[in-house]
UniProtKB/TrEMBL annotation:
Gene source species: Novosphingobium mathurense
Alphabetical list of InterPro entries matching this protein: DUF2334, Glyco_hydro/deAcase_b/a-brl
Highest taxon, organism lineage: Bacteria
GO biological process: carbohydrate metabolic process
Pfam family, one: DUF2334
This protein's name: Polysaccharide deacetylase
Gene3D superfamilies found in the cross-reference section: Glycoside hydrolase/deacetylase
Listed SUPFAM superfamilies: Glycoside hydrolase/deacetylase
């Protein structure tokens, strides 16, 4: 296996609200990739109903995961999108997520404040720097992108690339392989794409990204597809860290 071929895997929406689901996904990833060979995307207060700041027990779990080698990313603040959108942003908000694109419509000052507060909160919990920032639903508006360049993060990611958050230098290209649980049609589409990716992408991409979400555990078909996809890419791509890109 070439050391230049990397597999980057991540668990999204990590926080007290989905602790049981995160445990199940972490076990699945660890079984296929090894201890600490994936990332967690942490939401400071998911939909305003699960504040990490007040949950010392979950903060301790984050630190233990981080100590084991798992990279920690700031993943928005609330994760919920409350902005009113027009034009292309309106299309993205309706069709690329279900009210989850929190950083799509934020102005620069608000985005920067939430980024810095999330960074400080999670770094205090884990006792080290976070790996970077990834917006909920991978959606960024102009204000969020401008804020990102000032917030002090090393890395950022969207659907199609990973980049240096300060310089904008692209570090890896290619689609994220992910799954959808919120409708039968979206589930079927995500299963089909994952099957295609297992055939095409091992030869096409040096860096492959796989992302899983708490909702994935609600459907056995998704868990089976995730397991098959992790297994396939672990044979051709080395389970790596996002920091290896920089």
């Amino acid at each position: 296996m070439s050391s230049t071929k990397r597999l980057l895997a991540s668990i999204h929406d990590v926080g007290p609200r989905f602790e049981a689901e995160v445990d199940q996904l972490a076990e699945l990833l660890e079984n296929r990739l090894g201890q600490g060979r994936f990332a967690m995307l942490v939401v400071p207060d998911h939909w305003g109903a699960a504040p990490l700041r007040e949950d010392k027990a979950f903060q301790s779990r984050l630190r233990a995961w981080s100590d084991s080698g798992i990279e920690m990313f700031v993943h928005g603040w609330f994760h919920r999108d409350t902005a009113r959108h027009v034009g292309a942003a309106s299309f993205k908000a309706r069709h690329m997520t279900a009210g989850e694109g929190e950083f799509l419509g934020l102005d620069e000052a608000t985005a920067l404040r939430l980024m810095r507060e999330g960074k400080a909160l999670i770094e205090d919990a884990i006792g080290r720097e976070v790996a970077g920032f990834i917006a909920p639903a991978w959606l960024y508006g102009e204000g969020s992108l401008a804020a990102l360049r000032q917030a002090g993060f090393a890395l950022a990611e969207d659907h199609w690339k990973v980049w240096n958050a300060t310089s904008d230098r692209v570090l890896a290209k290619g689609p994220v392989i992910t799954w959808a649980s919120r409708s039968t049609a979206r589930t079927a589409s995500s299963l089909a794409f994952a099957a295609l990716a297992r055939t095409v992408l091992p030869h096409a991409l040096d860096t492959v990204r796989i992302a899983v979400h708490p909702g994935d555990v609600t459907k056995p078909s998704l868990l089976s597809s995730i397991d098959a996809t992790l297994s396939r890419f672990a044979r051709s791509h080395h389970p790596a860290r996002y920091a290896d890109l920089s």
